[in-house]
Amino acid sequence: xxxxxxxxxxxxxxxxxxxxxxxxxxxxxxxxxxxxxxxCAAWLQDNGVSAGDxxxxxxxxxxxxxxxxxxxxxxxxxxxxxxGKLHPKEADWILENAEAKFVFCCDGLGAALxxxxxxxxxxxxxxGDFKDGRSFHIVDRHSDDLAWLFYTSGTTGRPKGVMITHxxxxxxxxxxxxxxxxxxxxxxxxxxAPMSHGAGLYNIMHMRVGARHVVxxxxxxxxxxxxxxxxxxxxVHMFAAPTMVKRMTxxxxxHGETGAGIRTIVYAGGPMxxxxxxxxxxxxxxxxxxxxxxxxxxxxxxxxxxEEVCDRTHPNWKERLKSVGRAQSTVEVQIGDENGxxxxxxxxxxxxxxxxxxxxxxxxxxxxxxxxxxxGWLQTGDMGAMxxxxxxxxxxxxxxxxxxxxxxxxxxxxxxxxxxxxDVIEASVVGRPNAEWxxxxxAFVVGDVSTDVLDDLCLSxxxxxxxxxxxxxxxxxxxxxxxxxxxxVLRESFK
Length: 495
Description:
The chain is of the alpha/beta class and about 500 residues long. The radius of gyration is 23 Å and the shape is globular. The strands form six sheets. The protein has a nine-stranded mixed β-sheet with strand order 2-1-10-9-11-12-13-14-15.
């Protein structure tokens, strides 16, 4: 079944339901949105696009995004969303690697690609281009057919193209309803995070039930704008990285915002620091749900429900809040050693997942596929442990673990301690080469606090050998386009 069928079904029974907004301005109801999508699909077909062709989307968050997204699917083609914050040459590399037929762009990004003589034709769509009322029969697609070619953020070299099928996204959506959140026609999906990533994937559940889709006028993450739109629409759902949640909490407390109108914030991209999520819940109330996933298993490995995020009565509530939750319904999760053997409860190893939500492999990269998919399990590269109740606590990426004097040190446990100090805004811990000990622990810190104070804090909560040997103070930590700290950049400062 083609995923675009969900939109068409909604339009059949709820055509008058408001569908697409730019800020507070309504762009289309569901009948009008379905007609625009059909028109886009017909345009694609007229321009030589066949089922299985790859079509790039290099756009910032705009109302046109959802139209071309579903138009690509309706035509039986494969969407290749590219983060609008990437350099045009990076986008061009992805388009060439993906063997894209052409690319949809917004104004500025289209001009930037044209300037570097992009490898494929560039088309800048406007909503008016797809209002000719043309009908189009949705091209049939099977569960194993590609729907989305997702390129990893590429913090360590060239990004890899994760092959995401129609069946995988359908599994993700059904798992969301079962394990993450209920969605209804009265809800509002707010796209403040890049639609090329998790925020865009999450449109499918809201499209299925006939909810509103709101693209901020800013095209991105502006705290004040989010609070205003939430008050206007109500029942707002949004996807946010932990850094975004922390920023929203800070701004809300400074300006007296309560978060009125926000129903659900799904935070993902890594677990939040304990102090940050406690502060966010204390201020906003029971609106938070955590999801752990990867492009290779989109948004569907584990989940921590809003009840669990808010619970303060269970004897292990802090440990559970530090975790990324339990396995979602559509997958199995285990902890394995370097050979993929399942480890006993409580031992730290690599998080492994299998199920229908796991990718079939990387595009044109059999070597990487073989290394990542072993004996039916996706090797996530994330280190973690599982307790007797099935809660998974992440420690770090396997490459981020520090080995000092033959002892493993997980940066996250040091970061958790540093983040408990009220004057520490951000912290990231990495290993620095040491000829005698292998590696030293070094903390990069954003905040106004002395090293002596941080030393005392660490010595009061963790073993002496885990205490940072040095502190480096920065105005901000380097991050990729999805808000993840680039530890590779921090480590390069030692060279």
